[in-house]
User: Fold Aminopyrimidine aminohydrolase from Paenibacillus xerothermodurans.
Amino acid sequence: MKFSEELRQAVDASWNASFEHPFIRGIADGTLPLAKFRHYLLNDSYYLSQFARVQALGAAKATHLFDTNRMVVHAQGTYSAELALHEQFAKQLGITDEERAAFQPAPTAYAYTCHMLSAAYNGHLGDIVAAILPCYWLYFEIGERLQGLTPEEPIYREWINAYGGEWFRELVQEQIDRLDTIAEQVTSSDRERMQRHFVISSHYEHEFWEMADTLESWPTYG
Ligand SMILES: Cc1ncc(CN)c(N)n1
Assistant:
């Protein structure tokens, strides 16, 4: 069995919980309150800005120029495709540049990005790909499941189309293949650590829906 298949099996329950999450069900049937999507969007813009940095660290840590180039292309795609889509949604939702500049991420968005940055700074390209792969692969599976649905809210229709599209499938498959190639070349303790990164990121993907659905914010004390 390929390493990626082992990892996919290990997170099956956690990914099923994401598929069934009220936030995703709300996008699918169009009943998700826009205030929750707005909270998601602000946190996700922060998340993607850190994600692009992690991809760029992958480029720097790659030992082959081919991978350096591809990881740079992926970082650029995060900026020019996903963050551009967010910008369009932000306009539709009345999110101003000032609001975005002053925005502080919720605890879960902060913790998830710290996890990826830690894997990236401390590890090699295999650690980085393992930590970022749920971000690609889970969204693609969600996009596939929701394909064909036409919720009344246009933002939700566009969101579904973006993640179920062919452009995204190719990027996901490329990172799965990269993970499997690296897994064949590293030690079993490397693979165990890579699996932990993948499982932790999958957990945070689920918690990200929960963060948006509960409008999570930092507690105030006293
Ligand atoms: C939290 C999260 N995970 C994944 C994706 C899809 N790249 C995203 N936009 N945000």
User: Anything to note?
Assistant: The radius of gyration is 17 Å. The domain at 3-213 is CATH 1.20.910.10 (Heme Oxygenase; Chain A).
